[in-house]
Amino acid sequence: MKATVDWTGNVSFKATSGTGHSVQMDGPPNDGGQNLGPRPMEMLLMGVGGCSSYDVVTILEKSRQDVTACHTELEAERVDAVPAIFTKIHLHFVVTGRNLKENLVKRAVSLSAEKYCSASILMEKAGVEITHSYEIRAAE
């Protein structure tokens, strides 16, 4: 896996993945940024959410669950010092579908947390407390 990061002026950077997808990262206006994109630490948090959400959806699909949506809310706490590392991250999954079985949703969230989500497992190994919750909604 490869990626590049190019400075685009002030405190703004363009990150490009090895597959050719780009995202603009920027700092807040009080640091010389123009708020053109997420902060690098926000990218880390979004990466954890994307990695875990991918796991939950694919595990449920393999379990033959009729998932119509998966919305993941992330909330993180950081140290109020430099470096301002994460101390806690909570992921709340809102899984919508038809006739979803709670035991399979719970299993998918657990498997992601304990076995498959490389991003959240890496954060845990670095000392970040990661917690998960979920709710199930019926598709209309």
Automatic annotation (TrEMBL):
Residues 16-35 are annotated as: Disordered. It holds the Pfam family OsmC. NCBIfam families: PRK10738.1 (NF008009). This is OsmC family protein. It comes from Marinobacter salinisoli.
